Amino acid sequence: MDIKIEAKPDFLKSLASNVSPITAVSELIWNGFDAGAQHVKVILEPNELNGLHAIRVSDDGDGIDRSKVDALFGGLGDSWKAKSHRYKGRTLHGKNGKGRFRAFALGESVEWRTTYLDGKAFKAYTITGRASQLTGFSASQPTDAETTILGTEVVIENLDSNFPSLTGDKATLEITKQFAAYLTECPSLTLYYNGDKIDPSSVQNYKEDLHLGEVELQSGKRVPVSITIVEWSVQTDRVFELCDKAGVSLHEVTIGPQIKAPGYNFTVYVKSDHFRDLDKEGALVLSDLNQDVADILSVVKVKVREHFRKRILQHRSETIQRWKDEKIYPYEDKVEVNASEQIERQVFDILAVNVEDHLPSFDEASTKSKKFTFRLLSQAIRENPDSVMKIMDEVLNLKKDEQDDLATLLHKTTLSKIITSARIVADRLNFVEALSDLLFNKESKKRLLERDQLHKALEVESWIFKEDFNLAGSEKTLEDALAIHIGKLGKREDDADESDDPVLREDDKGGRIDLMLARSIQPTQGSHEYLVVELKRPKQKINSEVLTQIESYAFAVAKDSRFDQKRTKWTFMVVSNEMDEYAKLKSRQKDRPEGVVFQSDDSSIAVWAKTWSEILNDARARLNFFSQQLDYQADSDSELAYLKRAHSKYIPDDLAELATGGTTQDDVEN
């Protein structure tokens, strides 16, 4: 008999390939338990070369009824488990009928050998499938079974590889992690993996049963509730298992961040027969919306928080006593300890316990080294406890590869320089957003003064225009620009042919530039590049008059022979909030980058027109990579704090607060 699968081959292939070997085996184990099995065994059958010949997963469940095989194996996304939720008093794992396809992630040929009860007769048959033909299975005709033991054995052959993840030392541990909670919930079940019995207690650190008495619901009803808290030695999801009084799980609720218990992996089994009544009504499916569940969990959370507060204090107390016995604890035992020292000790105890828990090398250090480390830590806490706590928390939570990266960096540079580099990036991110607020906030831009405030702030933030340029001059005449240029060339004005004649524009007038930036052009020695920035107040649009002014500066430099054109490149840029239509058209010319309104034939002189939005977006783009790596986002408070720290001399605090809408820590404390 052929069983057709109503699904596209590509989708079926994805089910069989996008899964790890351990997960594929786990799915077959779950299928056994979902079929009512008391015992499930996984056997890795070796070949003559000590590789893998076959994988066998056997169970003593109810087998696969031959009259239902077409629906069971032909359907996808409409599993009987999705409708039943429970079978023989157990929560069902699978719900979408996808588990059988996971077997093909392991090998080409999969065979289900099953024995089931047909009325009072024991019958047996096989179902076969191939990875190359996932759109269908083949089922043999049932025959009288040679045994009266029900169940199914899945045999996977023509394996894709030797699967070291299944045969290695960690395989049994991985299976234990996946089934520990379930086997704890159902202690009568047994699971063997390649000869080893999976024992949940082997990955349990601690277990405690607590009786909460009767919990009063909003409806007025009172229901008895008890909990079992299991702390695992392996990584697990933190969940509330909603169980009946016997501990049979009916539904699972994620705990999330509601309970703070750093370093603990745990499950809370919440037991009450009231959950059984809710399950019969279908109310547990929407447990988040059920008031009775909320009432019970509210009481449970208080008890669980209390449990972990005690556990953390117990662990800390035991550890501190050991340090005292080893004579490495930096504080003396006193009958009376003042409040300040008491707080200091508490901070030290928290951080020092984390040091020992998170740094394996600490245990291996000598007693002298441990004592010295603790003395340094206590001294740092005494001088700056808040900063130390934050730094230690971040360092101790680094993953091993991140710790290795930090150690490698410290061979080449100092921690101080790493911190400084990160601070520069953070400062620039804050300045970009703060400047945007100053320029575009409806109220602040009315009050922002171009020369006394905006201009002065940009003198120390010239990187925002071009990254590798440094400020060469501010509020300079064209004659000053000439003097700076000659100085860059290594000459003095009085020992060359240059005269004191002014640098004039086309209308024989002089000119004053806002910012003049400079850099050396490498690798050509003696060559320089200048960027002259003309700032316009936010209300002043860039128009024909503004463009004529900036171009006249460029032309004045171009026609003055005292400016060395062969070894010098000049860029003139005018910046404001907006452009009028004329400026927009002129800044979008064929065969030129957008923004260029004039460029000399030899490209030694160019004139640009840019809006602040373009400048800010360019800066954001340059900083984006570093922002992502630092996982740092500027906000109104950090922007305000930066303006107050770096630019309070020019940007009044009330203007900064108006623009950013932020509050600093000082504001909060005052």
Automatic annotation (TrEMBL):
InterPro entries: HATPase_C_sf, tRNA_endonuc-like_dom_sf
Keyword entries, A-Z: ATP-binding, Nucleotide-binding
GO MF: ATP binding
Protein's name in the database: ATP-binding protein
